[in-house]
Amino acid sequence: MTEIIAEHPAKHSLLDDAQGLLYGGFMAAFGIVVLTQLGFVTGQTAGLAVLISYATGWAFGPVFFVINLPFYWLGWKRMGPAFVAKTFIAVALLSVFSAILPQYMSFQTLHPAVGAVLFGFASGSALLALFRHGASLGGVGVVALWLQDRTGFKAGWTQLLFDLFVFSLALMLRDLTTVAWSFLGAVVVNLIIALNHRRDRYIAT
């Protein structure tokens, strides 16, 4: 069956974007709760924020919000003000939800393998929702989307390369087993993005 793409695709409405950003921010926060419940780490700017949180005792949300601030300039220059505004909202939602959710949920039993995959699925779906509504979670995601638009290099692969750097740092704060389980979660996230994010297929903005 031949796929037909409209010459002038319908744009996402304000309500479409609002629910996409809300879903993305909430599910990303859920993934962070799973991650920190197990003492895992992750990649991208969220990974740096998690590592700083572990090392200093500072809350993840404010650290993540501050780390993303320098990347908005690139987003503004390369992706436009709408992208930056939506990304700022998504980052703010993640920061807030990640502080609130632990008050209402906990895990009595959570195997590391299940937790890693659950984190990967939740975070991957969150990022897909944000990407398809013209946003990201800032930081490396901004650079990754810009590279994909300019060169065709998959956003997921760019993020995976940065993850390798972050996980090298993680070995200084966490044991090898914990980092290995954490890496499984990061691989799941990036595979979901690499296999499902296609601008030639998902063209509404």
TrEMBL record:
Q: Can the keyword Cell membrane be found in this entry's annotation?
A: yes
Matching InterPro entries, A to Z? UPF0750_membrane, YitT
Q: What subcellular locations does the record give?
A: Cell membrane
- Transmembrane segments annotated in the record for this chain: 21-40, 46-71, 83-104, 110-131, 179-196
Note the topology in the membrane.
Multi-pass membrane protein
UniProt KW keywords: Cell membrane, Membrane, Transmembrane, Transmembrane helix
**CC annotations in GO:** plasma membrane
**Would the keyword Cell division turn up in this protein's UniProt record?**
no
**Matching Pfam families:** YitT_membrane
Q: Which domain of life is it from?
A: Bacteria
Q: What is this protein called?
A: Membrane protein
